[in-house]
Amino acid sequence: MGSRTATPAVDSFLALGRNQTMRPAHSSTSVSSMRVVSRRRMLATTVGMGGLSLPAVLALQAAAKDAPAQGTRRPAKSLIIVYLWGGMSHIDSLDPKPEAPREVRGEFQAISTATPGIALCEHLPLLARHTEKMAIIRSIFHDDSAHGRGMYWNLTGHAPPPSGGIAPKSTDWPTLAAMVSKLRPAASDVPPAVRLPYPMVDGVLQAGEYGGWLGVEHTPIIMRPSRGEEFAGVSPSLGAEVLRFGELDGHRLAERHGLLSRMDLLSCTDRPLGLPSDFSGFSHFHALAKEMMLGSAVKTACDLDREDPRILESYGNHLGGQSMLQARRLTEAGVPVVQVCCAAGNLNGGVGDMWDTHGDNFNRLKTRLLPVLDRGLSALLQDLEDRGTLDDTLVAVLTDFGRSPQVNGIAGREHYPGCYSVLLAGGGIRGGQVFGSSDATGSRPLTDPCGPPDIHATIFTALGLSPRAELRDHLGRPMVATDGRVLPLL
Fold it and tell me: Exposed, middle or buried: residue 409 (CB in 10 Å: 0-12, 13-18, 19+)?
């Protein structure tokens, strides 16, 4: 695939972002990006699917007709999302600029990696050994510099609402974890999707990591590992239910579930507590929690004390690393998708261990943020490889946006959605590659510009799911999962 200059594609993508709303499945969307799906498999998926609109069926069949055979690649079984809340500086991590002026390149040096020609920041030495497992995307961008809205772009693959706040609503696009769990249902005693170790907050809970119009039953439940040094800063739940496995036994949970059932019954009769729908989220959460606590593979997976001590040590004694280990154990127990927030939960005005480094960027990165990511993520990739499950597990490292190329007067970098970096590993991704490039200062995509919808299309395809899969919103309207194109990374 040849390189493309950035400007026309960037302009067209920004226009798409400004105008994008929930798009029905029958909209005139290109499906040429689905070249990796075999004709036989694509045609098979359309047989008997009476819920698809006729234009959607015809579009899928047209895409299948022109698609070469997929070959023997086995789709990934599960997805682990590592989310860097606050916006990681691409220049100080995955896309160093050693030849740029000091006010752009910053204080860090670039180091060589296991893959000739690929360099990373010097404070990612462990991850540098694993580039043969990774595809780094250095040309991603979108058009919104607010944290919650940037997170919405990256976790839903769609533009955030055109105006107003970003608190969760039932009209939001579902998060990636919710869409995957809808398209790949889990067993009845397994949560469809999990978030670790707490929700993301910027004053309020943020839309983008909830079930949206798929319903509360597809909102990933929140679990808290029983061990690990906390991220410095503030990580409130703000009323979101958090399941702490080290603090709640099965008997107490059963009692709480019984109380909730009585509250639901009361709300249906005398209604002093509100409508039954007021409790639907709590009821769903506690029903799942009861199933897990009273005896399932998930309960065992949540007990980190059962892990080999050498593996525990490899992830580091920090909540970030232990959450990544917990994610590996949960996916092995059958949870289709697990999301790890590798940061403090609340941005808290830029204070604490999260990636919103307006000030003191370099000290915060090298002492608190990059070491946790470096150790935890490298341990996860090595652990998956050693267990023979790397090809079955797709790992996606995402963030709100990048940071400004110019270092500001307080040694920080500002929000910068115009160019940033993410990475994919495992799950059939061809490692040892960089997709796209940024210009000499990391200011804009230089070649192969892409956006969050393209990352989502690639993730769906790696999981053996159609990027054009049809979902139904709260009004029963058919919606395509993503409008993105599949990047040539598989």
Answer: exposed
DSSP 272-327: SS--GGGGHHHHHHHHHHHHHHTT-HHHHHT-GGGS-HHHHHHH-SBHHHHHHHHH
| Residue that is written with structure tokens 């309207």 in the block | 477
Which amino acid does the sequence have at 120? L
CATH 3.40.50.1100 fits 77-241+317-465, yes or no: no
- Give the strand pairing for 337-341 and 478-480: unpaired
Dist. CA 251–CA 270, nearest whole Å: 29
- CB–CB of 423/134 below 8 Å? yes
What's the whole-model pTM score? 0.82
Range list for CATH 3.40.720.10 in the chain:
77-241+317-465
Q: How far apart are CA 305 and CA 242, in angstroms?
A: 20
Task: Quote the longest CA-to-CA distance of the chain.
Answer: 71
Q: What are the average pLDDT values for consecutive 10-residue runs of the chain, which has 490 residues?
A: 44 45 36 34 39 49 42 87 98 98 98 98 98 98 96 97 82 97 90 95 93 94 93 89 65 47 39 38 58 70 94 97 98 96 90 95 98 98 98 98 98 98 98 98 98 98 98 94 97
C-beta of residue 422 within 8 angstroms of C-beta of residue 447: no
- Where in 380-419 does DSSP place strands (E)? 393-399, 402-403, 415-416
Rounded Cα distance, 208 and 282, in Å: 19
Amino acid making up residue 37? V
Q: Which residue has the tokens 């915060």?
A: 364
Q: At 123, is the secondary structure helix, strand, or coil?
A: coil
Sequence-distant (≥ 6) Cβ neighbours of residue 55 within 8 angstroms: 25, 26
Contact criterion met (CB below 8 Å) for 370 and 124: yes
What CA–CA distances, in Å, run from 53 to 20, 50, 99, 192?
21, 8, 53, 27
Is cis: bond before 453, omega within 30 of 0? no
- CA-atom Rg of the chain in angstroms: 22
Tell me 416's DSSP state: E
Residue 189's pLDDT is what? Answer: 81
Q: Taking phi first (over 0 means left), then psi (-120 to 50 degrees means alpha), and beta for anything else, what does residue 372 get?
A: alpha
Output the pLDDT for position 299. 85
Amino acid at 165: G
Length of the chain: 490
- The pLDDT score that the predictor gives to residue 293 is 57
Q: List the one residue out of 444, 423, 425, 433 whose CA is nearest residue 83.
A: 423
| Residue (of 116, 136, 117, 114) closest to 125 by Cα position | 114
Separation between Cα atoms, residue 407 and residue 123, nearest integer Å: 18
List the end-to-end C-alpha distance of the chain, in Å, as a whole number: 13
Could you tell me the sign of the dihedral formed by the alpha carbons of 230, 233, 238, 240, in that order? Answer: negative
